[in-house]
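Milestone M4 deliverable, item 7.
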Amino acid sequence: MSAPARRPAGQDATRPNALVVCEAVSRDYRTGTARVAAVREVSCAVGPATRIALTGRSGSGKSTLLHLMAGLDTPTAGTISWPGLGDVPRGRPGLVGFIFQGPSLLPELTAAQNIALPRLFGGHSQGHAAISAAEALRRLGIEDLSDALPDQLSSGQAQRVAIARALATRPRLILADEPTGRLDAATGTQVIAALLDVADEIDAGLVVATHDPAVAVQLGESWQMNDGRLAISTQRRDQPKERP
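Output delivered:
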């Protein structure tokens, strides 16, 4: 069922356990003397166990909206809150797992060390962090890359390590910005399956920005960005396709 544009999308924005709530959120940028509106008056909410495909062409505002939801950016207007997380999640590993378009690995650390790092920042022991890293590597099918440095990895391998790093903290909310954009079709399918499996296991909310219809169809709900606005919010009545 289609909802009118500008209507709050997703879970009820007033529910106290919503993981993130955006209310009339806008984000503008300055380019010289010009003002660019990346996100325009978006109202939406993401609840626990929600599975959302965020679609739209390049430049439509998908990445900016995800950064705002993660607390990595600040809106120009409107408000963002995280009632189900307790506070702004920035700098608090275990609340939000963010998967960037680029891998953004630390070059001096091995794959396993990169994955373990958020756990260490969160106060876990080295042993606990190492176990979490090993499990995340296994989920992504890249155990053999454990000791590799980032400059020894292909772009696709590095992206999978970055995804493993985001999942290792067992976050309450997973935000993935084009996580399969650098991967071949088979690896992309494996990555989305891993994201969905982890989200199911820990009852996390999941939002995946994607251009790929094969990825979008695996999520239970579809949102579309158009020129900075959340133009369409569709709750699918059918079940997502069975995952491999």
